[in-house]
Specification:
- It is a single chain.
- This protein is mainly α.
- The protein has one domain (2-319).
- The chain is 80% helix and 0% strand.
- The chain has 15 helices and no strands.
- Helix 4 packs across helix 10, helix 7 packs antiparallel against helix 15 and helix 14 packs antiparallel against helix 15.
- The protein is globular, with a radius of gyration of 20 Å.
- It starts with a helix and ends with a helix.
- This is DMT family transporter.
Length: 320
């Protein structure tokens, strides 16, 4: 259990530093290139643990499994994380961290319609508080130039929630490490294909004349220098690779509900790191939004813990 809580602390610190780290290296890489590189590195770090897990579960992956991983990789890496990286580019790291942490509220409608998951009273209360927090942080009556960053963050959170619900259907079969590892590999392969398409002269010319110039002639290794390697190592190996490794270790040593503490602490810790490292000013409306999100997260966490205890008791009674 002690090892589990150490893993939670390490995962929390790494995930909370994600936006700050991406902000620091964003000027050195194309945002699409950076997404491709960090998830490829993350997949490689997860691979030994994933292979060990497959062996213990006695699973041999076939083409149907890779079709599932390809779908998950497209939703998570290609769509959600591309929006996420663009959000970091256009907005404050603290804003992205806090708003993205609200992605569980988008899980609720997806889970209800796609896997018939029930919605309880505490879920509705948490949902209302989170939506209020998003509105307060967006400050619609005084929108600033980071409107694109906010919109990209919300789109990233919505698509990440969709990825979570799709993944939930298969998580029991594969396990979290296997699912994430091969999702990252397939997502990286799909991103590489898009990068190669962006290099076609005609495609590059057309996109280059639009507002989406970052999608034209996307580099693969350009920008990797002695000065940029430390940042790439941190976001690839530590944040993406080791971050997910510690998170899954935390789930194994404790429980899924307890390990989720990582994402409930992140909205409070990430803005502090942004303030200390990037000197980002945290406005009053953002502080109020952070407090509301922490309250919402606490309600969800306690509710999940209680439901886990009830299920455990019910299983014990059935065994008796």
């Amino acid at each position: 259990m002690k090892q589990g809580y150490i893993s939670i602390i390490l995962a929390t610190v790494l995930f909370s530093s994600m936006e700050v780290a991406l902000k620091l290296v964003s000027g050195q890489f194309n945002p699409i290139q950076l997404t491709f590189l960090r998830f490829l590195i993350g997949a490689i770090i997860l691979l030994p643990i994933a292979l060990k897990s497959l062996k213990s579960r006695k699973i041999l992956l076939d083409k149907n499994d890779f079709k599932i991983f390809a779908l998950e990789g497209f939703i998570c890496v290609v769509v959600s994380m591309t929006f996420y990286q663009l959000a970091v580019l256009y907005s404050k790291a603290s804003i992205v961290a806090v708003l993205f942490s609200c992605n569980p509220i988008f899980v609720i409608p997806f889970a209800y319609f796609m896997i018939n998951e029930k919605i309880c009273k505490t879920t509705i209360i948490s949902l209302i508080i989170s939506i209020s927090a998003i509105v307060i942080i967006m400050n619609p009556f005084h929108m600033t130039n980071n409107i694109y960053g906010i919109l990209f963050t919300i789109l990233s959170a919505i698509t990440f929630a969709l990825y979570g619900v799709v993944g939930k259907k298969y998580s029991k079969k594969y396990g979290g490490v296997v699912q994430s590892c091969f999702c990252f590999f397939m997502g990286s392969a799909e991103m590489l294909l898009l990068i190669l398409i962006s290099k076609i002269h005609l495609v590059s010319q057309i996109i280059g004349k639009s507002k989406f110039k970052v999608f034209a002639d996307i580099p693969i290794v350009q920008g990797i220098t002695l000065s940029s390697i430390p940042g790439l190592i941190f976001v690839g190996i530590f944040v993406t690779g080791l971050g997910y490794t510690f998170y899954f270790l935390a789930m194994e040593k404790t429980s899924a509900a307890t390990a989720s503490l990582v994402f409930y602490i992140k909205p409070a810790l990430a803005p502090v790191l942004a303030l200390v490292i990037l000197k980002e000013v945290i406005n009053l409306n953002t502080i109020v939004g952070i407090i509301l999100i922490i309250i919402s997260s606490s309600i969800t966490f306690v509710s999940n813990k209680n439901r886990t205890k009830i299920k455990s008791v019910e299983i014990d009674e059935e065994l008796v």
